[in-house]
Design a protein that fits this description.
A: alpha/beta; Rossmann fold; 6-stranded mixed β-sheet; 4-stranded antiparallel β-sheet; globular; B: alpha+beta; 4 domains; 6-stranded mixed β-barrel; elongated
Chain lengths: ~230, ~850
């Protein structure tokens, strides 16, 4: 049991919208082991991104339990969750979410600075080198293409060598060539650091690169299979 | 740890430049500049008064006596202390040329005058030459206004009392003029010796004598002041020295600037609304960055500090710009200000008022940005995935509320401490807070009402869109009503107070006030004077009374100041009269009047209202010093005295035998038909040249003139407030520009014409402007009523022209600001707008 990274039991998410409460996730139970990669697929509105948010502590489950590396995310306050992410997680977003007033290097160094690493900038430079953007270290997000921005985001997520890597449709805003390059980088880095990866995607082809694929429908797990079976 | 990191993040965020902060900076800078400029002008005047203290005073020290000259003994004391002494007499008189006459403030000087400074004349001749006798006619110099009024030219002859003078020159500059205080007539300067036999300075006449001393180097002024007060104790002596050469002017300047700074603080509060709006909209744009930082593991305190430091740096920048402007503008305008101010000034950069203004600015920025900054707490990382931003207004956490209340307390404390009037400060800041609360409630009410109305306006799309927009865009309606409303409230309050004050002075008084005050009527002239007027059908009423001036020195044998504190009755010399019988219209409120033939120990009838304020009771003894002689009497009655009608009113009346020995003159008021006034004056002046006539209407005009100046100064302050309000309004319009562009694009897509959309935009702006103006009018009227009733103690009526101007101004301002930004929205092509939105 010690190599369990995620353990979700009957996890539920209910959000209060203008038209009243909406149930997004219903009784999700799921276990993810260390070093495993999981692909989350399903149609739009199925709850893929919401499940990723719950696993990343960006959203707190309103029912059930969510254990991440043995810690109960549902019992933590906002700051405790932030610290947990800082120390254990790297997240890649579909829309990159780079901070526009920071250079590529500063963006990558930010989580390292937040964690109090003295060598934040050296490590950030290395991370940029790894994604092939050493020459763009001093550039601002607005001066880079979408693919380049996502590579910086990837460097930012992996620079602290997190135990967990969460990616929410990281190629959704990119063309196919750039998307493919990003996915290669993502899996290489994940292999390099031995991180546990949870990837949300629309694409079956991308999902099959993961060890296990979980399909969601209407906020419920509709099926889980090893990627070999998909292939 | 998080402070260093937050500073680093803040610095990076500042790379975004000042985009979105121009309004923020303008609001702060304008408010701070206005306060710093007022403070700098005050400091320049104070520095000028200090530098020229001795010159303004006309010596190192001045001893002033009322209605008498110093005795030989007193002169001897002064000679012993000083290296030089100059004696002058100051009084009102009539300058007469043929049938024409005009009131003048005469200064009769000796040859030592002026001890310091020079009197500048045109033609440029020495004063001694100008005043010297030629062909047995002494010389005189006059101010231009009086020369013009009497149509004189240099060399012409005029009379003061029975003495003729030759006009030798015009006074260009009188070094000791600023210390003289409020004068009812322009100045004439003559030699005192020339007045012998003119009948103008006889015992009992109303004049002040002033003795200016030049003190030896290193003289201990404090010790000398003490010695003078001991030597002249009970003689009604007033002491002044060069350290505060013009206390009246200094006090006036201090009070006026304190008031203007409070008006400036109102402006800063209006700016604060803009500052708050700017920070809110900036942080709304930063939501994604904040959420990203959260996702990367930043805690709430790091994020709060990041933006707190950033806004702090920007606040410092705004305040610095304001301080620099406030320091430099008065210097740049100094040639104009120096020419317009009748007192010496020394323009320079004065740190104290700049620090004061800077602190006000920083505190205001803190107060108005803390709550928006506290909202960073509520941005969650989940915002990156979905719209998890809870934009609803909610109170921030308790520590933020405590910090805000503490900052307001510090601001109020600072304002009260700096301007010295807690009363005025609390009134002003209470008014601002009250207006803000009222406007916030009104903004909320307007939105609810608009929302409800929009449902009832189906079939009238322009109205319905306008109402829906007002009811829906919470930020827009709130910002407009608050910013414009607060600016207009200040202007409305100033308008209402000013209007009521003018009405009280210029509107009400003349109807019941007499035409003329005659003073210095000698005992042997009063019968003839009365006869002339009684036989005149144009005269409806004459009131005459013996007039002495005395200083109330003791109450129940204790120093009066100890008993009555700083009550105005004991602060200087007061009119005293005697009468055998009470005035037929007098109302005795307590006690009984003395018998008509009473000759026993002195008895006093005291003004009832003032007696109550001073804590006096029947049987109390009062000692009054009249022309150097102490007269002690017992209060045996109180009577109602109305000082508000400009008629004759005395604080203190005694039985005739108590004052029989004291030399005195008579004072008289005459109520006459306006068309006969000139003839009465000519007749009386011809028969009694020593009598001085003061036309009540002229005196009121003069007071009204001073008030007009005050109102103008206040209006400039209020205008700065309104300008800030307008800036905030533009900011609110700019913030809503994107939403309007999108709305216009949507409406066009659905088939609305540009004209229709424009009409709806104008309607929306006009309705909001009307609402802001109406609420401002309510707040301003309440403020005006409170100040008129409780501070000025005058009657209050709504001044409608000013009120209507406020509402019209509100509508015009919002429509202008709205139209400025509506053009772009109307011109944009729907496809582009909608595509950019996707």
């Amino acid at each position: 049991m010690t190599d369990l990274i995620f353990s979700l039991k009957d996890a539920a998410l209910r959000l209060n919208g203008n038209a009243g409460p909406v149930d997004i996730l219903h009784g999700i139970s799921l276990e993810v082991r260390a070093g495993e990669s999981i692909g989350l697929i399903g149609p739009s509105g199925s709850g893929k991104s919401s499940l990723l948010m719950v696993m990343g502590g960006l959203e707190q489950a309103t029912g059930g339990t969510v254990l991440a590396m043995g810690e109960d995310l549902t019992a933590m306050d906002e700051d405790a969750l932030a610290r947990f992410r800082r120390d254990r997680m790297g997240i890649v977003f579909q829309s990159f979410h780079l901070i526009p007033t920071m250079t590529a290097l500063e963006n990558v160094a930010t989580p390292l600075e937040l964690a109090g690493h003295a060598d934040a900038y050296t490590r950030a430079e290395d991370a940029l080198k790894t994604v092939g953007l050493a020459a763009r270290a001093g550039h601002y997000p607005a001066q880079m293409s979408g693919g380049e921005q996502q590579r910086v985001a990837l460097a930012r997520a992996t620079a602290p060598r997190p135990a967990i890597l969460l990616a929410d449709e990281p190629t959704g805003n990119l063309d196919s060539a750039n998307g493919e390059a990003i996915m290669d980088l993502l899996f290489n880095l994940r292999d390099q650091f031995g991180s546990t990866l949870v990837l949300v995607t629309h694409s079956d082809a991308l999902a099959t690169r993961c060890d296990r694929v979980i399909t969601l429908r209407d906020g419920r797990v509709d099926g889980a299979r090893d990627s070999a079976a998909v292939a | 740890m998080s402070l260093a990191l937050a500073t680093k993040f803040a610095r990076r965020e500042l790379r975004g430049g000042l985009r979105g902060f121009r309004l923020f900076l303008a609001c702060l800078a304008l408010g701070v500049a206005a306060i710093a400029a007022v403070g700098s002008v005050r400091a320049a005047i104070e520095a000028g008064l200090e530098r020229e203290g001795a010159s303004i005073l006309g010596g190192d020290a001045e001893l002033e006596l009322t209605y008498r000259f110093a005795t030989d003994e007193e002169r001897g004391w002064m000679q012993a202390q000083a290296t030089a002494v100059s004696e002058i007499a100051d009084f009102r008189s009539m300058a007469v040329v043929g049938d024409d006459r005009a009131l003048t403030q005469v200064k009769a000087v000796d040859t030592a005058y002026p001890l310091i400074g020079t009197v500048l004349l045109r033609p440029d001749i020495p004063l001694a030459d100008a005043l010297a006798s030629q062909d047995d006619i002494p010389g005189a110099v006059m101010e231009r206004a009086l020369i013009d009024r009497l149509g004189l030219s240099v060399g012409d002859v005029f009379a003061l009392g029975t003495q003729s003078y030759s006009l030798r020159a015009e006074i260009l500059r009188e070094p000791d003029n600023a210390a003289g205080g409020f004068a009812l007539g322009p100045r004439t300067l003559v030699l005192r010796d020339s007045l012998e036999g003119s009948g103008l300075l006889s015992t009992g006449s109303l004049f002040n004598s002033k003795y200016r001393l030049t003190l030896p180097q290193g003289a201990d002024i404090d010790a000398l002041e003490l010695a003078a007060k001991e030597t002249f104790e009970g003689s009604g002596l007033r002491w002044r020295d060069a350290r505060n050469g013009a206390p009246g002017v200094a006090q006036f300047v201090e009070r006026l600037s304190a008031f203007l700074i409070l008006v400036g603080l109102s402006g800063l509060a209006v700016g604060g609304v803009g500052v708050s709006a700017a920070v809110r909209s900036y942080l709304a744009r930063k939501t994604e960055v904040i959420a990203t930082l959260r996702a990367l593991g930043a805690d709430r305190s790091t994020i709060f500090l990041t933006y707190f430091i950033q806004i702090g740096i920007l606040s410092l920048l705004g305040v610095t710009i304001g301080v620099i402007l406030g320091a430099l503008l008065p210097i740049a305008a100094s040639p104009i200000l120096e020419a317009r101010l009748p007192i010496p000034t020394q323009f320079s950069i004065f740190p104290a008022p700049l620090i004061e203004a800077g602190l006000y600015g920083l505190l205001t920025a803190f107060i108005f940005t803390l709550w928006p900054l506290a909202r960073t707490d509520r941005v969650r990382a989940a915002t990156l995935f979905r719209d998890a931003w809870d934009g609803a207004s909610r109170l921030p956490a308790i520590p933020f509320i405590i910090a805000t209340v503490a900052a307001i307390a510090v601001l109020v404390g600072m304002a009260g401490w700096f301007n010295g009037s807690w009363f005025l400060t609390l009134w002003t800041l209470g008014g601002i807070v009250g207006a803000l609360v009222l406007l916030t409630i009104a903004a909320f009410g307007i939105r609810i009402a608009a929302r409800a109305l929009s449902h009832r306006l189906r079939g009238r799309p322009r109205f319905r869109w306008a109402m829906a927009a007002i009811g829906g865009t919470g930020e827009g309606a709130g910002a407009v009503v608050l910013s414009l409303g607060l600016g207009l409230s200040v202007l409305a309050a100033v308008g209402q107070i000013d209007g009521n004050l003018r009405q009280a002075i210029a509107g009400n008084l003349p109807a019941i006030a007499p035409s003329y005050f005659f003073v210095d009527i000698q005992k042997d002239q009063i019968d003839g004077y009365t006869e002339r007027l009684q036989n005149d059908p144009a005269v409806s009423r004459i009131d005459s009374a013996p007039m002495l001036r005395g200083v109330l020195t003791q109450i129940n044998d204790r120093p009066a100041i100890e008993v009555a504190g700083d009550h105005w009755v004991v602060s200087g010399d007061r009119g005293v009269t005697y009468a055998a019988r009470p005035d037929p219209e007098a109302i005795i409120t307590q006690g009984a009047w003395w018998p008509a033939d009473y000759t026993g120990p002195p008895q006093i009838s005291f003004a009832a209202e003032e007696a109550e304020e001073m804590g006096l009771a029947l049987g109390d003894t009062i000692t009054i010093n009249v022309l150097g002689r102490d007269i002690r009497g017992t209060i045996t009655s109180f009577q109602e005295v109305d000082f508000s009608t400009a008629g004759i009113g005395f604080i203190l009346t005694m039985n005739p035998s108590a004052l029989a020995g004291a030399p005195h003159t008579f004072i008289s008021t005459v109520y006459a038909e306006p068309e006969s006034e000139a003839q009465i004056l000519r007749d009386l002046a011809a028969a009694y040249p020593n009598i001085t006539a003061i036309r009540v209407k002229d005196a009121i005009d003069r007071v009204a003139g001073v008030l007009a100046g005050l109102a103008a100064a206040t209006s400039y302050g209020a205008a700065a407030t309104l300008l800030t309000g307008f800036l905030v309004l533009i900011g609110a319009a700019a913030a809503g520009a994107d939403a309007r562009t999108y709305e216009a694009a949507m409406l066009k897509t659905m088939g609305a014409s540009r004209r229709m959309i424009a009409a709806s935009f104008i309607l929306r702006a006009a309705l909001l402007g009307f609402a802001a103006g109406a609420v401002a009018l309510l707040a301003g009227t309440l403020g005006g009523w409170a100040v008129s009733t409780f501070v000025m103690e005058t009657d209050y009526t709504v001044i409608w022209p000013s009120a209507l101007l406020i509402i019209t101004g509100g509508i015009i301002a919002t429509v202008l600001a709205g139209l400025g930004f509506a053009r772009r929205a109307l011109q944009a092509r729907p496809a582009r707008v909608l595509r950019a939105r996707e």
